[in-house]
Amino acid sequence: MADLRRLFSLNSNDSSLDEALKRDLEEDQHPEDSPLSAREVSMHASAIRREEASMQRREEKAWVLSRRAYQVLSVLTALIIISVLLLNILDLPLFGEADNPTNNEVSARYLEYGLEEGGAVNLVADVILDYRAFDTLGESNVLFAAACTVILLLRRFSDAEQVHGMPEPLLLEEAPSDPLLMAAARLLVPVLLLFGCCIILNGHLGPGGGFAGGAVLGSGLILYLNAFGDQRASRVLTFRSFRILSASALMFYALSKAFSFFCGANGIPLDLPLGTPGSILSAGLILPLNMAVGLVVCCTVYAFFTLFRKGEI
Amino acid sequence: MWQELWNDRVEVAAIILFGIGLTTLLLNRNLIRKIIGFSFMDSAIFLFLAAEGYIAGGTAPIRTFSSDGTMVNPIPAGLVLTGIVVSVSVTALMLALTVRLYQRYHTLDFDEICRLEREKRQDPPGKEGF
Q: How far apart are CA A97 and CA B57, in angstroms?
C-alpha cells in the first residue's frame, strides 16, 4: 500500500508527485507487483462499498423496526384508553333515567320558566341565546377568528402586492361551465337561499336557528359559485362586503349582549318585548341574534370554500 | 356487566368511535387522514354529550312538541351546538395549514416532512465537520 499512500499524499509539490509517479511507472514494469496493486485497489473499494451497503441495510432495518414498534404501541395505547373509558361507563348512572345527576335544578328551571323569561318556544334557543348567550358569543368569536386565520394563511394577493417569501399558491383551474349544473342550480339556489332564511327566522319556534340556517345559506352561495363561475359570484359577495357583514353582525351581537349584562349588573330592569309565543316576531332579542349568527356562519362557510378553491373571496 | 354495557350502548358506541378516531390519527402518515381521525373523535364526543341528556319518554325540548310536558334535557344540546361550530373552525384551520405545508414540502406524508425538516437542520453543521 506504500505506493498508494505516496500517490494520494496531500503533498502539493509537483516535483515530488512527479517522482512518485515515475517510481510507480518503474514499478509497473515489474509484472509481479503491478497486478497486486490494482487488485488491492479494487478490493479496498469493494470493501468500502460493502460496508456502506450493510450500514444502509442496518439503518433501514432499524427504521422498519421502529415504525413497527410505533404502530404496535399506538394500537396498544388506543386499546388501553378505550378499555379504561369503557370501565368508567359501568360507573355512570343509567341511561335515560329522569333522576340522573345531569338533570338537576338548572335544566328544570330552563324547562319550566324558559317560555316566560325568554319568550321562545324552542327551549334550546332559549338556553343558547338567552340564558347562556355569552357562550354563544365566544363560539361566534371562534368562528370569526378561524375565518381570519384561514384568510391569513391562504389569501392570494395580486402580483403587485405579493408578499416576499410567500410561495406560489396552488390555483385550481376553473371548470368550464356545465349546462346541466347551471340548469339544476337555477332551480336549487333560490330554494336553498329561501330555506336557509326560513330556518334562521324560525329558530325560536322549532328546530333550527342561526347556525343551521347559516350553513344552508352558505351552501346555496357555494352552489351558485360552482355553477355560474367566479365572475358572477364575486358580484354577489366581495371581500369588502364579507368583511363588513361578518364584523358588523358580530359587533351587533356583542353590543346587544353587553347591554343585557350592563342592565343586569346594575339592577336596571330590561323589559324586552317578548310578544306572543308562537309568532315569528317574539322572544325579544333571540330573533335578531339568530339573524346575526346566521350571517356570520354564512359568510364564514362561503369564505372557507372560496379561499381553499382560488385563494380569494 | 354486559347487561349494563348494553343499557349504555350509545355511550359505548361513542367511546369505540373515539378509539377508532384516535387510532386513525396515530397510525396514518397522510395528513388529510389524520384530520379525518380528528373529525371522528369530535363526532364521538358530540354523541356522548347528546346521549347524556336523554330522558326516556321525553320529546325534543320544544314547547309545542310535547303533549304531557316531559322533555329532554336542553343543556347538552346547547353544548353540542357550540362544540360542532368549534370543530368546524379547527378543521378548517388544520386544512389551511396542510395546504401551506404541501406548498412548502410538496408532500403530504408526515414522516417525510419531519425527515426533510431534520435534514434541513442538519445540513449546515454537517458541511463543516468533514
A: 10
- Identity (one letter) of the amino acid at B37? G
Task: Quick: pLDDT tens for A243-284.
Answer: 999 999 999 999 998 888 888 888 888 778 887 777 888 878
A212 — contact with chain B (CB < 8 Å)?
Answer: no
Largest Cα span, chain A: 118
CA distance B16 to B26: 15
- Answer whether A86 sits within 8 Å of B15, measured CB to CB: yes
Which 3-state string (H, E, C) describes A182-237? HHHHHHHHHHHHHHHHHHHHCCCCCCCCHHHHHHHHHHHHHHHHHHHHHHHHHHHC
Beta partners for residue B30, in sequence order: B109
User: Which residues partner with A17 through β-bridges?
Assistant: none
Q: How is residue A277 written as a grid cell?
A: 309565543
* Contact status, residue A138 vs residue B89, Cβ threshold 8 Å: no
Crossing angle for the helix pair B75-105 and A133-154, to the nearest 10 degrees: 10
* Alpha carbon separation from A114 to A122, A277, B83 (Å, rounded): 9, 11, 23
Helix axes B75-105, B31-52, angle to 10 degrees: 180
Cβ distance B103 to A169 less than 8 Å, yes or no, reads: yes
pLDDT tens-digit map of B46-72: 999 999 888 888 888 888 877 667 888
pTM: predicted TM-score of the whole model, two decimal places: 0.80
- Cβ <8 Å between A139 and B74: no
Interface of B with A in 47-86 (CB under 8 A): 51-56, 60-64, 70-71, 73-78, 81-82, 84-86
| CB contact at 8 A, A194 and A273 | no
Evaluate whether B79 touches B42 at the Cβ level (below 8 Å).
no
Handedness of CA A261, A264, A270, A273 (dihedral sign): positive
Sign of the alpha-carbon torsion through B107, B111, B112, B115: positive
Write out the three cell numbers for A101.
345527576
ipTM of the complex: 0.86
pLDDT higher than threshold 70 for residue B96 = yes
Residue A272 has φ and ψ, to the nearest 5°, of -80, 145
